[in-house]
Amino acid sequence: MDYAVARRRMVEKHLVQRGIKDPRVLEVMGNIPRHKFVEDALQSQAYTDYALPIGEKQTISQPYMVAVMTEAAQLIGDEKVLEIGTGSGYQAAVLSRMAAQVYSVERIVVLARRARRILDTLQYNNVHIKVSDGTLGWTEHQPYEVILVTAGAPDVPQEYLSQLAPLGRLVIPVGGEDTQTLRRITRMADNTYREEDLLLCRFVPLIGQSGWPNE
Ligand code: SAM
């Protein structure tokens, strides 16, 4: 299979034709080998627009949703980004090509280790991963110009609002366990927060102290 051709088709059909406009998002997603972030048996499906299983009942998000979230983050290249939910490492790889440093938190150790291995092999050297409860953010490196949450939260954890830099953007799916609304929250210069609802989405749950209980 020619993955470069499949990737170009994915960008055109699932991103451009569905309204993704940021040229950097399109370029970066046109270059990153998504098939390397899934197991061998699923590689031929890597450029379809589906979330795919990565083990531990978790998923690599569908390309369209990765593009929507990355575009909503409005990155210009010099930002410090916090990602919650490393999963496969693919979203972190996309962010790493569009920002200065990416701090990514994953609660499941085997996923964090696998993502680390893949990101090291592909030389995404500005991605830092920690195994922890990401509902608490990552206080050591705050404030962040962007916080991107790739699991669905019942409410917006207060920790994210306080770890956001002035004029920073938090992109987070909020709602029930089955469906959520993707929301962008901007910390304004006067320390108020502006909320925008972007679209309906469906993520695995954000589990932790300021998220869903672990059942
Ligand atoms: N961004 C990932 C990617 O590119 O593959 C997809 C993430 S997957 C949809 C959601 C991830 O969030 C899972 O790996 C899950 O273990 C993780 N997660 C859920 N609750 C978490 C928490 N409190 N802290 C850190 N990670 C969490």
Structural notes for this entry:
The chain has one domain (3-201): Vaccinia Virus protein VP39 (Rossmann fold, 3-Layer(aba) Sandwich). The chain is 27% helix and 27% strand. The protein is built from six helices and nine strands. The chain has helices at residues 3-15, 23-31, 63-72, 90-96, 109-121, 158-162; strands at residues 52-55, 58-60, 80-84, 101-106, 127-131, 144-149, 164-175, 180-187, 193-201. The strands form two sheets. The protein has a seven-stranded mixed β-sheet with strand order 5-4-3-6-7-8-9. Strands 1-2 form a two-stranded antiparallel sheet. Helix 1 (3-15) runs antiparallel to helix 2. The longest helix has 13 residues, at 3-15. The chain is globular. The model has no long low-confidence stretch (mean pLDDT 97). It binds S-adenosylmethionine. Residues 58-61, 84-85, 87-88, 90-91, 105-108, 111, 133-135, 150-151, 203-204, 206-208, 211 line the site of S-adenosylmethionine (SAM).
Features:
single chain; 215 residues; alpha/beta; Rossmann fold; seven-stranded mixed sheet; two-stranded antiparallel ribbon; 6 helices; 27% strand; binds S-adenosylmethionine
